[in-house]
Amino acid sequence: MSSPLIFVTGATGFIGSHVVSQALAAGFKVRLSVRKEAQIENLRKLFSKHTTSVDFTVIPDFTGPDRFGKALEDVTYVFHLASPMPGKGSDFESDYLQPAVQGTIALLDAAKKVDTIKRVVLVSSMLALIPLEALATGNFTVKEGLNASIPIDPKMSFPDDPMASGGMKYHASKILAHRASLEWTRTNSPSFHVITLHPSFVFGRNMTQTSPEGLDGTNAMLWGCLHSPKPFIPMSAVDVRDVATAHLKALDVQVGNPTNVEEFLLTATPMQNWTWGQVSDFAREKYPGLDVKLEGPFEEPPNADTSRAEGVLGVQWRSMEATMSSFLDQQVAVRAQLTE
């Protein structure tokens, strides 16, 4: 019996590369979607031990179901991770909303035409479950099922400050894309199940980073917070390896009616030592050369209900120490290369 084939978007990304690595290690075959032909060679090198289990398809733009062609042929599962990154564009409609919302719906429409597909796993974000103003205060409760109650206007205006504007546009696109996937699933009654994963701030070793300049995304936020007097994001964290594991567990989890999306919030808790005070103390003690500038007192972490991820998916969270070590060991190593 041949191994099931997983179609993966966003494989070049921080989370996506870990997802592909774990899927291959578990014996799956993968078909990786890239936007440019030039991206294929780096992925071939990254997964060189699994050449017979990896193939590629080039899809420059996801915003129409006809864009997928034969990419979903013989596919059993879909992992959709490709999404606009904060700060990578200035126009909300074209740079954030269309790729996030239309890209997701186009993929779902295309998947509906393929009778071999059993599950579609969409990678959303914790942000899809909290209001736009929540991050600024850091004082919020997050759990599954909250998206529909979040007030949001797709025609809203954004701050003039580029950093604040980029973050808010990204946040808004996550809310609206998830809402669109919920509505699509209700109205289309697909033959497959739709599962959405909602990671908080994802930290850990980046499989593709080879230089200090390659530090980006949520890892860059963590690095920036360590070197600032006060953190500029709330402490809600999850190890990238745990997010990848959740993808594979989502393929086996018992689910109900296909008209309902199964949501899973992915975030470790203070029980795993994830507080800014413990993070700063650990970094100072284990990495004294980093010049950590964080100083307390710190705000309490947000309240997150992770009972579904733990009880239904069976995810076990790595400790803060394990995640921080994997992240900081890499940052120390890539910077040491500059002095050799």
Automatic annotation (TrEMBL):
Q: Which Pfam families match?
A: Epimerase
Q: Which residues does UniProt call coiled coil? A: none
Q: Which GO terms describe its molecular function?
A: oxidoreductase activity, acting on the CH-OH group of donors, NAD or NADP as acceptor
Q: Where is the NAD-dependent epimerase/dehydratase domain?
A: 6-253
Keywords in UniProt for this one?
A: Oxidoreductase
InterPro entries (UniProt xref): Epimerase_deHydtase, NAD(P)-bd_dom_sf, NAD(P)_dehydrat-like
> In terms of domain of life, where is this protein from?
Eukaryota
The record's family statement is: Belongs to the NAD(P)-dependent epimerase/dehydratase family. Dihydroflavonol-4-reductase subfamily.
Q: What is this protein called?
A: NAD-dependent epimerase/dehydratase domain-containing protein
Q: What high-level taxonomic lineage is stated for the organism? A: Eukaryota, Fungi, Dikarya, Ascomycota, Pezizomycotina
